[in-house]
Structure formats: structure tokens, C-alpha cells
């Protein structure tokens, strides 16, 4: 039997140290990304209550981040064009958000904080919203499919 290496032990300690406090998750606002044009990347973030999501205006095109559907009691947000927005996840559940200028192009995203208690509501709101998109009609679906 092999003994665990020192490197592996150090790696495990690093993970333990990281998970102790609230984390920041960075979501880039991009004109072009892995999933096509006008995207939030990553479009799905799995977080814990107390974590912060930072929307970064990495590429400028009047992108913003505005909440669409929130867990009960969570505070809505609406960022200015091409401005950084920091959102602290105070409530457990699923958050849907959009870029207002490019929503019709499927520039949308999903955050999960803790357990997804409001997932059915989120899916219904996403389906209603994306019916009016001219492209990227499956982006909410792809992001919501990652909620576990
Ligand atoms: Cu945009």
C-alpha cells in the first residue's frame, strides 16, 4: 500500500483553509465567450450562503447585471452599464439574473446558494423569460441543468 505523499497532504490542507470562510465568485461579462456571443462566464455559479458574486465588466458593451428572480427575502440588484457589481448571497436558493441590454440575446445566468428550494419557481420564470429571446434560448436551461 502506498502512503499519501506530502504534496497531497499539503493540497488537502489548502482546500480546508479555503472552505473555512465566505468565498468570492467572479463572473465575467463578455462580448464573446466559450458559449457564444454576449455571455456571463461562468453562467452558473454554485455558492454558499454568505458568499459574494462579483460581476466584472471584463469586456465593455454596456453590459450590466440585474436580478430577475430571487429566493424569498433576498435583495434585488441592478448594476450600471459596464460597472462592477458585488452581490452578497444572503438567502438560500436559486437566483436568476440578466444583462438588460442583451437579455434578448440570451445573456443570462444562474446562481445557486445552498439548497435550491425555489428551483421550480426559477424554472418557470426562466421558461417564461427565454420564450421572448431571439437567440441563446437554451442558456437558462443549460445553467439550471447544473443546479443540484
Ligand atoms: Cu450584455
Structure explained in plain terms:
By secondary structure, this protein is of the alpha/beta class. The chain has one domain (21-144): Cupredoxins -  blue copper proteins (Immunoglobulin-like), CATH 2.60.40. It has helices at residues 6-18, 119-130, 139-144, and strands at 24-33, 36-41, 44-47, 52-56, 66-69, 85-88, 93-98, 108-113. A four-stranded mixed sheet has the order 2-1-4-6, with no helix packed on it. A four-stranded mixed sheet has the order 3-8-7-5. The chain is globular, with a radius of gyration of 17 Å. The mean pLDDT is 91. It binds copper (II) ion. Residues 38, 61, 63, 99, 101-102, 107 line the site of copper (II) ion.
Amino acid at each position: 500500500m502506498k502512503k499519501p505523499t506530502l504534496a497531497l497532504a499539503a493540497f488537502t490542507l489548502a482546500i480546508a483553509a479555503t472552505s473555512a470562510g465566505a468565498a468570492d465568485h467572479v463572473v465575467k461579462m463578455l462580448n464573446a465567450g466559450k458559449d457564444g456571443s454576449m455571455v456571463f462566464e461562468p453562467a452558473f455559479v454554485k455558492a454558499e450562503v454568505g458568499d459574494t458574486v462579483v460581476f466584472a465588466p471584463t469586456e465593455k458593451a454596456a453590459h450590466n447585471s440585474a436580478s430577475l428572480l430571487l429566493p424569498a427575502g433576498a435583495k434585488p440588484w441592478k448594476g450600471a452599464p459596464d460597472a462592477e457589481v458585488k452581490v452578497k448571497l444572503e438567502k438560500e436558493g436559486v437566483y436568476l439574473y440578466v444583462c438588460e441590454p442583451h437579455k434578448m440575446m440570451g445573456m443570462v445566468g444562474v446562481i445557486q446558494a445552498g439548497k435550491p428550494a425555489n428551483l421550480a419557481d426559477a424554472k418557470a420564470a426562466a421558461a417564461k423569460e427565454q420564450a421572448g429571446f431571439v437567440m441563446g434560448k437554451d442558456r437558462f436551461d443549460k445553467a439550471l441543468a447544473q443546479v443540484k
